[in-house]
């Protein structure tokens, strides 16, 4: 009888220990989850802050204002097309850019410039595409593989556009999530040129 009470007591003790371990695991999991949610929220807040700062400094980007492009391929294309002394809307994109961003920009441009395929003063500059790539969006200059326009902004892998008139003017980085600034930019470009 004493032996069976000890066995019963041992079993109860083991069950109690298991129960405590399970509870400890659950409490730890809840604490980790809460901590991760706080970290996620802090991370989202940081991303939103960076995004806000990024957007407010890039519409339009004045640091490129008046900068010359010295790329021989680009200048030769302008000369051959008779555009070297005229303002040209340049849409620069890359095979490495966000595809939905490039497609978005193309849709917006086509909606605002129905004659984009034949419009002489609108050109696309495509970087990092194989030499046998077919025309993708409009009158396109395919830069030789590995070549770019030589601008720092090309390293962010997002399409951008600017007016080239003996230098860069009104460089703009469109954002899919913010269509209003893009529409305002395109309206201003249409009025100006």
Main sheet specs: 5 strands, mixed
Average pLDDT across residues?
78
Number of strands: 5
Low-confidence stretches: 46-60
Q: Structural class, judged by helices and strands?
A: alpha/beta
What string, H for helix and E for strand, traces the elements in order? HHEHEEEEH
Share of residues in helices? 40-55%
Q: What's the helix count?
A: 4
Task: Sum up the overall morphology in one term.
Answer: elongated
What portion of the residues fall into strands of 2 or more residues?
5-15%
* Strands side by side in the biggest sheet: 3-2-1-4-5
> Multimeric state of these chains?
single chain
Can you give keywords for this protein?
single chain; 193 residues; alpha/beta; five-stranded mixed sheet; 5 strands; elongated
Descriptive notes:
By secondary structure, this protein is an alpha/beta fold. The protein has a five-stranded mixed beta sheet with strand order 3-2-1-4-5, with helices on one face. The protein contains four helices and five strands, in the order ααβαββββα. The protein has helices at 2-57, 72-80, 99-112, 179-192, and strands at residues 88-94, 122-127, 140-142, 160-164, 168-172. It is elongated and about 105 Å long. The N and C termini lie far apart (102 Å). Mean pLDDT is 78; it is low at 46-60.
Short overview:
The chain has 193 residues and is of the alpha/beta class.
Topology:
Elements (H helix, E strand, L loop, with lengths): L1 H56 L14 H9 L7 E7 L4 H14 L9 E6 L12 E3 L17 E5 L3 E5 L6 H14 L1
